[in-house]
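Example (one chain per record):
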Amino acid sequence: MSGLAILAFTFADMLEGTISIAELSILELLFSAVLCVFAYRHGKSSMIVGLKWHRILYLPLRSCGCLALLALAMLMFSIQQGNSIEQLATEALSESMMDQLFGFGLILFCVYIAAPRLPSDQRPLVLESEEKTS
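Predicted structure:
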């Protein structure tokens, strides 16, 4: 559930109240494109392995959920160290491009590592388009 929340908040932050693609920055467009490529890779490799549809959806959300729990733990540690919630909120709202790049990178990493892999003792499947004709 927290993985779905982190993805929803990321896209809500990207759109900033509008549904216009024209207002997105180059970084946000690049993130969306790479996320689509990673989601396609995840779906294709999941189908090859033979996962059911609910497991296909669950794996990237679980990875993003772990990221959300890590962020929550860091927030709780920061509050315990004496930082006020108002100070943390102003720092979070004054998001720089590097912070956004780091956040996008973490989400892309979570989706990338969620894709299933074949065991090392199995030979990878060769698709028809990759076969060599002699």
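Caption: DSSP finds five helices and no strands in the chain.
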